[in-house]
Amino acid sequence: MRAMAKKQKGMGFAGFIMIAAGVIFVAILGMKTVPSYVHSAQISQIFKEISRDPAMQGASVKDIKESYNKRANINYITDITAEDIEIVQDGGQLSLSTNYSVKIPLVANITLLLEFNPSSS
Fold first, then answer.
1. What is the pLDDT of residue 4?
2. Are 110 and 32 spatial neighbours (Cβ–Cβ below 8 Å)?
3. Does 10 reside within a domain?
4. Domain total for the chain?
5. pLDDT at 9
6. For residue 58, what pLDDT is reported?
7. Range of the domain at 32
8. Neighbour tally for 62: CB within 10 Å
9. What distance in Å separates the CA atoms of residue 119 and residue 97, rounded to the nearest whole number?
10. Is 11 within a domain?
11. pTM recorded for the entire structure
12. Which of 119, 73, 66, 69 is nearest to 96 (CA)?
């Protein structure tokens, strides 16, 4: 009589490869998308700083855009320019906002489109 073979427990090689491929895909996706989200957060922060700055409350649109350009250059933000900013001065309240999108190529003709709407409010 032959001895009965024990059942295998655990993951096989094919399962390991599939999980590793999934982890690598998620890691690459994260490395490509995280900088866009960080830039959006930085743009929002710049808008908030400008809108809360007492010197900017009565400033001209040109001065506000120059202030944005200086702050964006410090943070290496190139996603939007000062010309892309919507500036609304309602009474004593200053509001800045913009809409922009970022296309991130993934593989061949597959592209990820991220849309952002940072504002000072």
1. 64
2. no
3. no
4. 1
5. 76
6. 81
7. 28-116
8. 9
9. 4
10. no
11. 0.81
12. 119
24-29: long-range pairs with CB below 8 Å, 24+: 29/106, 29/112
Residue 79 in contact with residue 100, Cβ under 8 Å? yes
Sign of CA dihedral 104, 106, 109, 110: negative
Which residue ranges of the chain lie beneath pLDDT 70?
A: 1-5, 8
- Token pair recorded at residue 24: 């690598």
The answer to whether position 18 is within a domain reads no
The answer to whether position 76 is within a domain reads: yes
Angle at 73 between CA 69 and CA 76, to 5 degrees: 135
> What's the N-to-C CA distance of the chain in angstroms?
79
Residue 121 pLDDT: 83
Which residue is listed with tokens 């400008």?
A: 50
Rg value, the chain, Cα: 24
